[in-house]
Amino acid sequence: MDNEVLDFDIGVGVSSGGDVDDDAIDIEHHVIDDDDMLDSPMPVANSDAVNYFPEGDLLDLEPYDGLEFESEEAAKAFYNSYARRIGFSTRVSSSRRSRRDGAIIQRQFVCAKEGFRNMNEKRTKDREIKRPRTITRVGCKASLSVKMQDSGKWVVSGFLKDHNHELVPPDQVHCLRSHRQISGPAKTLIDTLQAAGMGPRRIMSALIKEYGGISKVGFTEVDCRNYMRNNRQKSIEGEIQLLLDYLRQMNADNPNFYYAVQGSEDHSVGNVFWADPKARADFTYFGDTVTFDTTYRSNRYRLPFAPFTGVNHHGQPILFGCAFIINETEASFAWLFNAWLAAMSAHPPVSITTDHDEVIRAAIMQVFPGARHRFCKWHIFKKCQDKLSHVFLQHPSFESDFHKSVNLTESVEDFESCWFSLLDKYELRDHEWLQAVYSDRRQWVPVYLRDTFFAEMSLTQRSDSMNSYFDGYINASTNLSQFFKLYEKALESRLEKEVKADYDTMNSPPVLKTPSPMEKQASELYTRKLFVRFQEELVGTLTFMASKADDDGDLVTYQVAKYGEAHKAHFVKFNVLVMRANCSCQMFEFSGIICRHILAVFRVTNLLTLPPYYILKRWTRNAKSSVIFDDYGLHAYANYLESHTVRYNTLRHKAFNFVQEAGKSLYTCDVAVVALQEAAKTVSLAMKNEVRRTVANGHVKEMCYNEDCQQQVPQPEPKVRILFFAILVALIK
What we know:
By secondary structure, this protein is of the alpha+beta class. It has 23 helices and 19 strands. Helix 16 packs antiparallel against helix 17, helix 17 packs across helix 19 and helix 21 packs across helix 23.
């Protein structure tokens, strides 16, 4: 053949010593990878491509020089079939074209481990590699070369048989990249099962059963997952105009309806975000903590839908906006969070909860650097069931032990001890997933998060708002054309439930369980659900005893525990001057509801009403009013008790300390008695000229009914005043 030939690389491979352009899609974030390992995803084949398979005697034939094929595709299929039988993966390396017409006249097929990775490539120097790929190229020389003859047929012109690496056994060869392909019938079955709401794992189980084994399926769960993801994205891209038309109409009807589109609305569309007027208004009242729920972007669902949700004053889930996740890169998530922040008047939340995802974490660090980021514990528990399914089956007690180590530990030390005991008990110290979640423990284990507000009703249970706003409306089979009607139904239903809760709070007074003025005060301030939660804590104090553990002047530490359970005690530090306490359980910091341990301390110190500090406006029936807490117009009796209690506790604390000193000797005791007599006369005179307080026009005025009262009331020495009240303390006790 007299054709002049020109050697060059056509982009599907490189000559020995080079690398290949990667076109694989990563299972999670579409990161480029070219490994031939078990988890390496294969490219999704063009649905119009024609597949060639060797037939008859060629199935068991070994290549040799002079072997003829009808076409280049037949030669490639033959060598790939041979590679499958032997135990290696193939790829196209180099080509030669005719200068006359540009037609390919020679091909070289090589072992996938041919050549070496070029670590000095410009593309590796110009960008940071976040996840270095496994080295798979080892310089293997095995190859098959074919060239086209004048007859149009292709003939083997060179064959190198030997490999410089171990070959893959038959039960794993189906995982090699060149041998993984989703056939037409398999695609049809996947499409049908995906439409029925099944996820990749269940679909693969069905395929394995249908084909009689994983090796006969011809591809892996990774390939199935990627195929489903591409299917869904193509479907969304085809219907995205429906969504944009809906958002434009909503904005035209109400300019306060906010939406944003990444990219151009007329061309390539990225992520889409929107927030209706109610969502934006609700954020101003309850935007202290936010959940970004990406459950619906999993392959089980047909819509990559992600709502921003929160919790209202009734403990119900509320909506802060929605997104369609078309692009899942860090930059796209950062764009989405910035769009949401713009809709919420640039007020970032105190805390935000998301799924356990590295890309989302990076975007949150970029957009919300001051917010406390938490991974959803419930999602991690669900992943645990998947990652450790064999442990759950072999050890029924594992789930309970895992729950206890995470939810029931009271301190960091307790958690660390329980966690490693768990790993040792079930021999899981080397489990990679458990090592990964442990390294992120500060973002999902409760003992590390209790110092931050997340608006949860319980320290141990899953929040009602987590992944529940659209429960019962959007499911795995919901498509975009059905979405809008179901979305609006969900909004109407949630609004109806909120209105019903408002009505019940205002028109159905709760049943009080104690004669405590504090309970009556709380019943008039909190919403019904929050009052019931407070009432549980208040009644719970009856089983607790609070005893003084340390007294450092103004700061007193109490040990609070049930009778006979001192080893389970909590410690409350109480500042009597400012009427503020902090408990080691940190329930108030985490949920905004005062705990029974602090309430037990308030009981023994005769603090009869809740100080304003412990009544968060976001939990009250007036949460949506513009009235600040100090102007709530609290019950007059509660106001009186609160101010009286603060004065009483301050004076009693100072008097008690002074009496202890005065009673150490007979002489100091006699001096104290004389001082008390003088103090009694001073207070008696002051009571005759008492300053009365009255409220006029919302402001407090002080009126003295004796014009010379300031002159008639001498200012006693502080110690004399304190000693007088020591007598009152003794009488009260």
